[in-house]
Amino acid sequence: MTISQPLSFQHVILKLHDFWASHGCLLWQPYNVQVGAGTMNPATALRVLGPEPWNVAYVEPSIRPDDGRYGDNPNRMQQFLQYQVILKPDPGNPQEIYLDSLAAIGIDRAQHDIRFVEDNWESPALGAWGLGWEVWLDGLEITQFTYFQQAGGFALDPVSVEITYGLERIVMFLQGVRSVWDIDYDGQRTYGDVFLRSEIEYNIYNYELADVERLTQMYALYEAEAKAALAHEPPLVIAAHDYVLKCSHTFNLLDARGAIGVTERAGYFARMRDLARQVAAAYLEQRQQMEYPWLKEKVDSGQWSVVSKPANPPAIQLTSQSVSFVLEIGVEELPAGDLSSALEQLKAAFPAFLREHKLEASEVHHPIGTPRRLGLIATIAARQPDEDIEVKGPPLKAAYDAVGKPTKAAEGFAKGQGVSVSHLAPFSGDERYVGVKKKIVGRPALTVLSENLPSLIASLKFGKAMRWNASGVAFSRPIRWFVALLGDQVIPFEYAGVQSGRTTRGTRAAGSPEITTASAGEYRDALKRANILADPDTRRSAIVEQISAAAAKAGGSIPDDPNLLEEVTHLVEQPTALLGTFEDRYLALPKDVLITVMKKQQRYFPVTTQQTSQLTNHFIAIRNGNSDHLDIVTHGNEDVLRARYADAEYFFKRDTQKKLEDYLPRLGTLTFQVKLGSMLDRVKRIEALTPKMAALLNVSDDELTIAARAAHLCKADLVTQMVIEFTSLQGIMGREYAKRSGESSAVADAIFEHYLPRYAGDQLPQSKAGTVIGLADRLDSLAGLFAIGLAPTGSADPWALRRAALGIVLVLVDQHLSFRLRDELRLAAAHQPVKVEDKTIDDVIAFIAGRLRVMLLDRGLRYDAVDAVLVVRADDPYRAASEATVLAKWLQEPDWSDVLSNYARCVRITRDLKERLPLDTRADAEPATATLREAYDRAAAKVNAQPDVNTLLTELRGLKDTVFAFFEKVLVMAEDESIRKARLGLVQHIAALSEGIVDLSKVEGF
Amino acid sequence: MTISQPLSFQHVILKLHDFWASHGCLLWQPYNVQVGAGTMNPATALRVLGPEPWNVAYVEPSIRPDDGRYGDNPNRMQQFLQYQVILKPDPGNPQEIYLDSLAAIGIDRAQHDIRFVEDNWESPALGAWGLGWEVWLDGLEITQFTYFQQAGGFALDPVSVEITYGLERIVMFLQGVRSVWDIDYDGQRTYGDVFLRSEIEYNIYNYELADVERLTQMYALYEAEAKAALAHEPPLVIAAHDYVLKCSHTFNLLDARGAIGVTERAGYFARMRDLARQVAAAYLEQRQQMEYPWLKEKVDSGQWSVVSKPANPPAIQLTSQSVSFVLEIGVEELPAGDLSSALEQLKAAFPAFLREHKLEASEVHHPIGTPRRLGLIATIAARQPDEDIEVKGPPLKAAYDAVGKPTKAAEGFAKGQGVSVSHLAPFSGDERYVGVKKKIVGRPALTVLSENLPSLIASLKFGKAMRWNASGVAFSRPIRWFVALLGDQVIPFEYAGVQSGRTTRGTRAAGSPEITTASAGEYRDALKRANILADPDTRRSAIVEQISAAAAKAGGSIPDDPNLLEEVTHLVEQPTALLGTFEDRYLALPKDVLITVMKKQQRYFPVTTQQTSQLTNHFIAIRNGNSDHLDIVTHGNEDVLRARYADAEYFFKRDTQKKLEDYLPRLGTLTFQVKLGSMLDRVKRIEALTPKMAALLNVSDDELTIAARAAHLCKADLVTQMVIEFTSLQGIMGREYAKRSGESSAVADAIFEHYLPRYAGDQLPQSKAGTVIGLADRLDSLAGLFAIGLAPTGSADPWALRRAALGIVLVLVDQHLSFRLRDELRLAAAHQPVKVEDKTIDDVIAFIAGRLRVMLLDRGLRYDAVDAVLVVRADDPYRAASEATVLAKWLQEPDWSDVLSNYARCVRITRDLKERLPLDTRADAEPATATLREAYDRAAAKVNAQPDVNTLLTELRGLKDTVFAFFEKVLVMAEDESIRKARLGLVQHIAALSEGIVDLSKVEGF
Predict the structure, then answer these.
(1) A228–B239 CB contact, under 8 Å
(2) Half-sphere exposure of residue B971, counting CA atoms within 13 Å on the CB side?
(3) Of the candidates B21, B32, B294, which has its C-beta nearest A61's C-beta?
(4) What is the per-residue pLDDT across A920-951, written as a single tens digit (0 to 9) for each?
C-alpha cells in the first residue's frame, strides 16, 4: 500500500468522484428504478447512442436476485454497488486512466497482479453487447472494462468505453477484510451494519416470497405502459425506458423464483429487447431532431481513416541485399483464443505476403505474441527484384495504316506505356497484336511495406471483433501502437488511426513504459530487457517448468491439461507461478466442483498428490509480472478462491438439505417449452419411454429397474443451485446428489451417463441404463420440438438439437446398437402433448442422418460411400455406419471399377423403364441369357439371405464377367418384344439386387 | 460571495458530501425506487425509528408529478434533487452546523437574509410529521429543516433533525442564473442539457398518458406484495417498505392524472399509512430483537431531565427591598402564531406567578419577544415577606390526659411543627383543638425563582409542540439557552436539558454571537446594542414606518392588513424594509392571484397606487437584518417572486385555453364521495335545487336565469390548475375564468359569491343568485354527508361541515332571510343518491342550530336568551336570531324578574299536570279568577295574532299584577275538584302562551 490508512468505503467513492470529475466526467446519480447494473441507467443505456460525446461517472446499487446468498457469502449478494464510468468517445488510453484511478484509491500496480481477462459482455434484455475484460486484482475480479459495440440493437458510433468498478471487492481488498460485511463503511459503521439485514430480507423475498402471479401481472402492465409511451408522438423515451427497466427487474425476480422456463426466457428476452430497441431508436431520432446539441465540435470524419496515404518514405541507402524487419501490433489485452488464432493466421499469411510482394529472403521466424502484442520478425529482401515484362497492345491491323504508319491507337498505347511508338513490336504471345517489352524496376521494401502492411493487418480475422474509434476498424481489441522497422528505419503507415513508429511498451506491472527500439534487430532484446517472454513456446515451457517446480514444493503434481496451459500461456507476458492453499475443509466438496472453479473461473492449476492423484488443497496460479511482493498476490488469490469455494459450499449445503427426488416438483415450475410442458412433463415422458426403449435394446430386468429409477431422477439436478450456477456440472451433480440421497451407484452413474457423450470424442455411457435414458431424452426432444416447428434453421440452434442428434448417432454407432429410429420416434411421438405427423418423423430421421453423415465424413469415409448407404439406411445409424465402412473398403478394391461398371450398365439400360418386368427368360433362346439367368438366381439367393453391402458386392463381383459377356453377345433391345422383355426383365432384376442395401448410383464413377 | 468562482452543481454536491462526512455523517446513496422525497429513503424513513444514533447524508432525486410545468417554469419541475441530512439525536446546534454548511458552498450569512420560516411538515402517506422551518435565502426557500416527531405512526425518541436542501435553488442562487435549466452542471453541460428533455417527457407521461386503469392495478399489486412481506415471519421490513414507496409513487401519478377523488384520497392515505405503520412497527421490533447493535453507549436516561434539582443558590446579600429580574428563553425560530400566543400567555401568567410566589413589586413590563427569544423583565421583591401562621393540631381531649399532661399525640404534633409541647395552645379558629402559632420567614427571591421558573416555562402551551432531546420536554421549537438573572446573579436552574446563565445570542445575520449580560438591568441595552428590536410593538411600528416610506418612494401606499403585519413582525428581530419590483406583464394576471402569492407565499406587502388603489408592480419585503448588501437581498427576493409569477402565469395560460364550461366533464372524474358521486353529480344536484330554493326566497325570473347558469358553472374552477395550486382562490378564479369565457358578470359574480361568507366577518353574497346557490351547495353537503354517517365527530370535521352550517346561518341571519330549514333540507334530501331519513334532517337542523348558537353567543347575546329561543325556533335561523335579540333586550328590563316570576309561577304549578285542562272558569265564583280570565283572554288574542317574543312579553308584563293578585287571593289547589280544575286550567293556559314562541324556563331566574 502506498497510503498508510486504508480509505473507508464512502471515502473511496468520493476519491473516485474527484478523480473522474477531474478527468472531465459529469457526476451522475444512481437511478431511481431498480436495475441490475449501472449500464441500465439512462446515463449509459441511452447516452452511449448517437454521435454526441459524453463522459459520466456514478455509483449504481445493482440488484441481481440470483446472486443472493442470505448474507452467507463473503462477497456475493443480491445487491452491490457499482461505480460506473462512461467515456465516449474512447480517449485513446482508457486502460491507463483506469489504472491511475486505482492508484488514486491506493492500489499500486507494482505490488499486485492486475490483469485484463477477456470478457465479452452481452445484455440480451437490452439488445446490447461489447468486448473487453474483467480486470483481476490478484485473481479478484474488481472491474468490468468494456468497449460498447451495440446498445438497443444499434451499432454504436462512436464506441463508448464502459468501466464498472465492483466497489465492495475493491474496498475489501484495500481494507484487508475477508468479508464484505466487515468493510468499514464510514469510519464508524460496517457495510454489514447498514446492509446485512436488508440483504437477508431481500433474499427471503426474492427466493421465497415474491408472488409469481402478481409479478407476472406487473410485467404485463409495465410492458403495456412502455408500449404506450413509445406509441406517443413524439415517443416518450425516458418514460418508456423506465418501464423497460421495471420489466427487466421483474423478470429477474420471476427468474429467481424459478418461474421462467427456457422458452419463456427466450420470449421475455425477445420482448424486452424489442422494447429496448424501440427506445433506442426513439432516442436516436430525438437527438437527431434536436440537431445533436452536444456535438459542438463536429467530429471531422476525415480526421480518422482506416488507412492513410503513407507519407513519402525517406530515401533509402541500402547497403545490403537483405535487411531485418519487425512489425509489432501493440494492442490492449487480446483474448487467449484470439491470440492463438492471430498467431496461426500470421504464420500462414506472412510468408505469403512476402511472396506476393516479392520480398522473400532467408529467414522468417514464427510470429511471436503476448496478450498485448503480435510480432513478426524476419530478414527480408531490401528491395523487390527487377522484372522484364511484355504488354499486349492493339491488333496489328489497327496499329498501322496501309502505308505502315502508326495509327492513333498505336500512339495512344505507346504513350500509355510510357514509351515511344518506335518501341512497339509484334507481341510475342500472339503476333497478330503489337506489344511492348518493359523492365519493371523492383521497388524498395520500405515503400512496398509502407503501402501494404495495413492490408496484412487488416487481413487478420477474429470470431468477435470490435470497433473503438472513428476509423471504424474492427479488431479483436483496440490497437494502440505499431512498431514497424526495416533496419533502423520506421516503415511509415497509419492504420486504425495509429501511426507506426519505433516505440513499444513494457509490461503493465511496470507501468507500460515506452521503450524505443533503434532498429529491427534490437527488438527482441528490447523485449527481453523488459522481461517479456514474447515467444509463446518459450512462455509455455517456462510455465510448465514453474508449475511443476511449485507443485513439487507442495509434494504434488499437475495433471495434464493442454487447453488450460494454452489459455494461461496466452494470458501473460511475464509468467510467475505462485503456490496457493485453501482450507482443507473445502476438500469435502465434490472434486468436480473444486476443479471447475479452479480451472473455469480462475484459470488455476489444481495440484494432486503424486502417488494417488488425489486432489490436494493447493493450487497454482500464474501471475503476470515478476516475483516482487508475491506474498501479497498469493494472499489475494487465496482469498478469491476461498470466496468462490464458500459460494460452492453454500450451494452444496443448500442443495443437500433435500433429497434429489425432492427437487422433482420444482421441475414442474420450470417450463421446458410452452407447448411441450414443463421439465417435469418431460421427465415423465422419458420415464414412459425408458421401458419401451429398453425392450428394443435387449436390456435386462435388473438394468431396467436401474434405468427406470435413473430416468425418474435424471433432470432433478437442473433446479439445484450448483447446477444453476455451473451449468457444466449438470449430470455430475446429479450423480453426486443421487449418491448422497441414498440412491445406488448404478442409478447415480446412469444419471451422469445419460448426458454422454457431450461432444464428439467424449466418453460414452458405460451402462445400459445411461444409454437408454440418454436416447429417450434426445428422441423426446427431437420429436417434440420438430413437431412444433422448432427445428434448427441456418446456424441458429437454440435447443442444441444438433448436439442431441449427434449424441444419438455416437451412442448407437460407437456402441454398435442397431436400432430402428422410425419405430423409436413413433414411440416418443406418442407421448408428446402435441400431434406428431409422419412427415415430422421423416424430417427428424433426415436430420439425424445429416449429423451421421458429418460424423462419418469427419472420420474419413468417402462422401460417396456415405451417401450411397445413407439413402437407404438412414433409419439405422449403426447399420448405416458399418455398411458405409464396408462400402468404403470396397471402393478401394482393385477391380472395383470393373464391378461397378458392369452393374451400372444394368442399371442405366433399365433406368427409364416405367414398369417392373417379370423375371422370365423363357422367350429368349440366347445361351448367354440363360447363363446370366443362372448366375443371377444364385446371387439373388445369397443376397436375399444376407442383404448387406458385403454380400451384395461379393455377388456383383461374381456376376461381373457374366454380365459383361451377356452384353457382348446379345442385343438387349431386341426387335421382338417378348425377347426384349425377357432380357430387360433379367437386367432389371440384377439392377434391383442393391435395393434396400445401398444406392450405388451415388458412388463416383457410376 | 466569499469565493470568486461559483461552484458547479456537481461540485456543490461534493462539497456537501465533504462537509457532512467530516461532521460524522455516513454518505448514503439515492434510493432505487422512485420517491417523492429523501424522507422516504429507508435511510430516513426507517432509521429515524428507535433509540439508535444515526447520522447520514445523501442526494435524492425526488419526484412530484404535480409540480411538472413541461419545463416552462424557471424552478418548478416534476423532478428535482434534494440533499438530505439526518442527525439523530439532535446535536444541540443543528441550525448553526447547517449555516456552516452554507458557508462551505459559498453563502455568506452576512450578505443575505437567511430566515427560518415556520413549516410544519406532514406526510399522510408515511404517518409522519415534524415541526421546523423552511429556510429562506433572500426570500427563496432553499431548505426544509424539520425536527421529526413521528414516523410510521410512532413517536420518535430520540427526535431526528432532518435537513433537506433544494440543490437546484441553491445552485441557481450561487451561479446567479434565473432558470434551473441554465445551471452549470459540471463545467461543460447545463442542467437543462441533461434534464430538460426528460422533464418534458415525464410531464406528458404523468399528466396525459399514464394509464389510470393500469396504475390502479399496479397499486393493488404493490399493496398485496407489501402485505405479504409484512405477513412473513419475521416480517420482511425492507421489501415491504419498497412496495409502500411504489404505492406512494403510483398514487402520485394517479393524482396527477386527476383520477383521485376526495374520498379515494383519504382511503388511499389510510391504506398507505397503515402499511407504513406496520413497516415501522416491524422495523422497531427487529432492531429491538437485534438488541440495538448501534447503541454502543447506551443513552443514560439520567443524563437528561425535564427539571433538575437546582444547585444550591449562592448566598445572597440583599441590599434593597426590590431587585431587577430578567428571564430570556432562547429558542430556535418560533412560528409567528406561537410567538403571539406565548406573549399573551406570559402577559397573564407572569404577574400571577409573582403573586403566587409573593414576589410582587413595583414594575412588571410587558413580555418581549422575537422569533428567537421570549423575555420577561421586571423589578420584583428581593425576598418573600415573612408570615405569621397558626397550625391546627389534635383535639384538646386527645392532646392532654386526665391530669392535663400532654399525650403522645400532642408531643407528636409539636415535634412535627418543630416546637416544644409547651408552645401548644388552643387553636384560635376552633378552641376544641390545640394549635401552634409560627412565623414563616420569607425566602429569598433567588431561591424561589430557582425552584419555580421551570414550572412557569413549562406552563406555556402551544397548538403544536415538539420534542427535540432526551428530556422529553415539548415546546414550540427547541429551547437553546436561558438568561435568568436577579440583579447581577444567575438564577440557577435547568430545564429541558438547558442550564440557565447570563449569555444571550445576537442575530443570525451576525452569526448568533454570544452576548454576556452582567446584570438583569443591562439586558435591554445588550439587545439594543445587538440591533434586536425585542419589543413587538416597537418592531411593529418600525415596520409600519419603513414600509410606508418605501411605498412612498415608489409613489404608492400599502393597504391595511393587520394579520400580515402581525405575522411579519413576528418573523424578524431586526426589520429592514426593501422595495422590490416585478415585470409589468405580470400585472395582467388577476389581482387576487398576484396578492395571494405575495402575501400567502412570500409575506410581502403589495403596493397600490395612492389615488386609485390599483396594484403596482412593486412589493415590499422585510429583511431580518441590517441594510448591508440590501441590493443583493432585493435582487434575490425579486427573483423568487418572478418564479412564483411565472408559475401562476403558466397556470393561467393553461387554464384559459379552455372555456370554464369545458372543465365540467373533468368534474365527473373528481369523486366527491363514493356514495354521493362525483363533483359533477353534486353540481347537478345544486342545479336541480336552485330553482326550488329560488322559489322559496322570492327570486325573480331574471335572477333565476342567472342563478341557473351560475349553478351550472359554480364548481368548474376546482379542476383548473390555479385552484388546484391555490385552493383559496376557488370561486375567485371561477369568477375570473367565467368572465373570460364570455359569461355575464352577474353569472361570474354569483359563482364567486356562492362561497361567501367564507368565515364569520367575511362579506356576504350581494346577489340573490349567489345566495341561492350557496345555500343549495351547503344544504346538499349537509343532507348527503349526514345521511351516510359522515357528520363531524369531536374535533374532526374533514368535510368542513361546521363551516357550511355557519355559512347558512350567516347568510340567512345577516341577509334577514326567513327560511324553513326543514323544507329546504327535504328538497335537498330528495336529490341525494342515498336515502335521507327524517331523523337525519333533525340532526342537521340541530347541527345548524349549534352553529347559530355559537354565532349568537359570539355576538354577545346571553346564552339563556339564545337557548330559550332556539328550543323552538331552530328551524328558522333568521327568526331565531332576531327573537333571541329581542328576548335579550327584555332580560335587561327593570321589571323583568317580576314579569318572569309571575309567569313562572303559572308554569311551575301546572308543570306536572299530565292532562291539558279546558279553559273553563265557570265553576269558580272567585272574582280574582274572573279578572284573570278576562286579562288572559285579551292577552291570548294579541299573542295569537302576533306570536312573537315581543308581543308575548308585553302581554305577560300586562298580566303580571293580575296573576300576582290571583295567587294572593285564591287557593289554586282547591279541594273541590271542579273549582280546582277551573283554576288550574286557567293557569295552564297562561303558561301555554309562550308555546311555539320561546321557552322561558331556559332563562336565568326562572
Answers:
(1) no
(2) 5
(3) B32
(4) 988 888 999 999 999 999 999 999 999 999 99
C-alpha cell belonging to residue A633: 498476490
Indicate whether A301 pLDDT > 50: no
Beta-bridged to residue A406, according to DSSP, are A400
Say how far apart CA B859 and CA B104 lie, in whole Å. 57
10 Å CB burial of residue A516 (0-12, 13-18, 19+) is exposed
| Reported ipTM | 0.77
CA distance B233 to B285: 12
- How remote is the C-alpha of B726 from its chain's centroid? 18
pLDDT digits (tens, 9 = 90+) for B588-640: 999 999 999 999 999 999 999 988 889 999 999 999 999 999 999 999 999 89
Q: Which among A21, A189, A238 has the least Cβ separation from residue B202?
A: A238
**For residue range A379-430, what is the model confidence (pLDDT) as tens digits?**
999 999 988 888 888 998 888 888 888 999 889 998 988 888 888 888 888 8
Identity of the residue in A188, A204, A218 whose CB atom sits nearest the CB atom of B221: A218
Q: CA–CA separation, A51 vs B514, rounded Å?
A: 60
Q: Cis omega before residue A234 (within 30°)? A: yes
Which residues from A are below 8 Å from B207, CB to CB?
Answer: none
CA dist list (Å): B1006 to A955, B902, B999: 146, 10, 10
Question: Is A34 in CB contact (< 8 Å) with chain B?
Answer: yes
Torsion angle (degrees, nearest 10) of CA B771, B777, B782, B785? -170
The C-alpha atoms of residue B443 and residue B445 are separated, in whole angstroms, by: 6
Interface test mutation site (partner A, options B16, B184, B198, B223, max chain A beta carbons within 10 A): B198
DSSP track, B703-741: HHHHHHHHHHHTTGGGGSHHHHH-GGGTTHHHHHHHHHT
DSSP B185: S
First to last CA, chain A: 79
Q: What is the pLDDT of residue B502?
A: 96
Residues with Cβ within 8 Å of residue B814, at least 6 apart in sequence: B764
Residue B256 and residue B206 in contact, taking contact as beta carbons nearer than 8 Å = yes
Contact B27 A204 (CB under 8 A): no
Nearest one of B577, B610, B372 to B480, comparing CA atoms: B372
Measure CA of the first residue to CA of the last residue in chain B; give whole Å. 78
Q: How far apart are CA A226 and CA A238, in angstroms?
A: 10
* Selection from B396, B332, B343 nearest residue B374 by Cα: B343
> With b meaning 16 or more CB within 10 Å and e meaning fewer, what string describes A418-432?
eeebeebeebeeeee
SS3 A146: strand
Helix (H, G, I), strand (E, B) or coil at A70: coil
Instruction: State the sign of the Cα–Cα–Cα–Cα dihedral B639, B641, B643, B645.
Output: negative
* A207 vs A200: CA distance, rounded Å: 11
> What's the CA gap between A655 and B568, in Å, rounded?
71
Measured between CB atoms, does B909 come within 8 Å of chain A?
no
Judge whether B407 and B401 are in contact, CB under 8 Å. Answer: yes
For B586-596, the pLDDT digits (tens) are 999 999 999 99
- Indicate yes or no: CB of B21 within 8 angstroms of CB of A14: yes
Shortest CA gap B209–chain A (Å)? 7
**A493 phi-psi bin (left φ>0, alpha ψ -120 to 50, beta other):** beta
Neighboring chain B residues of A200 at a CB cutoff of 8 Å: none
**Contact call for residues B324 and B363 (beta carbons, < 8 A):** no
> What pLDDT is stored for residue A320 in this prediction?
62
pTM: 0.78
Best of B9, B25, B26 to disrupt the A interface (most A CBs within 10 Å) is B26
